[in-house]
Structures are given as C-alpha cells and as structure tokens.
Amino acid sequence: MPEPMLRDLPGFGPRLRRLRRARSMKQAALAEALDTSQATVSRWEAGTQLPDRVTRRRALELLTRDVCDDAVLRRLVEHSSDCLHLVDEANHVCLAYSPSRARQWRQSQRALLGQSLWPYATVEIQAAEAALDGSDWWESQTPNPRLFHTSRRVYDALTVVEGGLLWERLYLSDGTPVRLCSQAHSPHN
Q1: What is the SS3 assignment for 176?
Q2: Where is the HTH cro/C1-type domain (predicted)?
Q3: 23 by DSSP, 3-state: which?
Q4: Strand, coil or helix: what is 74?
Q5: Is residue 165 a contact partner of residue 186, using CB atoms and an 8 Å limit?
Q6: Whether pTM exceeds 0.85
Q7: Using the 8-state DSSP alphabet, how is residue 16 labeled?
Q8: Count of beta carbons in the 10 Å neighbourhood of residue 170
Q9: pLDDT per residue as tens digits for the range 82-104
Q10: Does residue 48 share a domain with residue 23?
C-alpha cells in the first residue's frame, strides 16, 4: 500500500483570504502576527507572491488554531446514514465523519479526527482542489457544490473508494468555512 504524500494544498492566496475574512481579521493584524507587512499579505492573497512553506503553514495554523467545536453539526455528521465527512477548508483537517465513512476507511469513528486528509488525496481530488482557484469557490460566500469522480486509492490509514464525490461549503458558528464531502452519483458511474 502506498504511503500518503506530503504536499501543499493549492490556492494558498484565495484560501488565506477566505479564512482571514471568515475570522474577521485585517491583513495588518495577520501581517503583524507573521512578522511581515500588510502589503506582503496582500500580495500573498492576490497570488502575486508565495511565501515559503513554513510561513504558509504558520499562517494557516494561526487562522485555524481556535476552530470552534460545533457539537450540533458534528453530531449530524457522526449520526448520518449517508457516507460523508467534514473537513476544515483551510487545511483539510478532519472534523467529523459518519459511521459508513468510518467503515469505508476501515477506521474507528474517532481515529482520523484532527488529522489532515490532504495527504490521502487522489489525483482527481488534487485536480478538483486546484480547479477551485479558477472558479468562484473562494470569492463566493455560498459557492455552488462541486461534483467530480475519483479513483480508488488504498493507504494504510484509509481507503478512498472510486465514485462520485460532492463538496459543499458550510460554516461553523464562529464563521470558519468547512467542507462537507459526501458520496454521490457521478456522471461517470
């Protein structure tokens, strides 16, 4: 079984902007926390400059470290009969998943909580994530759901099954954007 790859999420600038705005943080405040200038943060968000990997991770960690635990939303996901999971949009950290997703992943319903699922992304998931940059996903408060087909991939920690995957944006009560990922019938099935 292949090991998951460590790779950065695409679209750092738009992702950073969406998360910063959701947290009602000014560019200047983020710049101060990262020991840089407001103009630099502006260039990052515009995509004209990309900070080094360490700074990218620090910025996302700073904006996600106190993510609210929405017990009601978590309970809805954890008790759903549908095959779905909920991730933080900034870093794909797993916030909750349903019993059927746990069976699909061959894990307990708590084993992957708090871990980024991005290292397990298939080629199709990576492409769908990259395609968000050319869409209204990061600019729109309520973007249209995205449906795509993904291939099967088996890792030690989990199995990604082949089939349709639907992404929908939701928000936690503190304004943090999250993504509901559910099995769906795709045009390829």
Answers
A1: coil
A2: 16-52
A3: coil
A4: helix
A5: yes
A6: no
A7: H
A8: 15
A9: 999 999 988 899 999 999 999 99
A10: yes
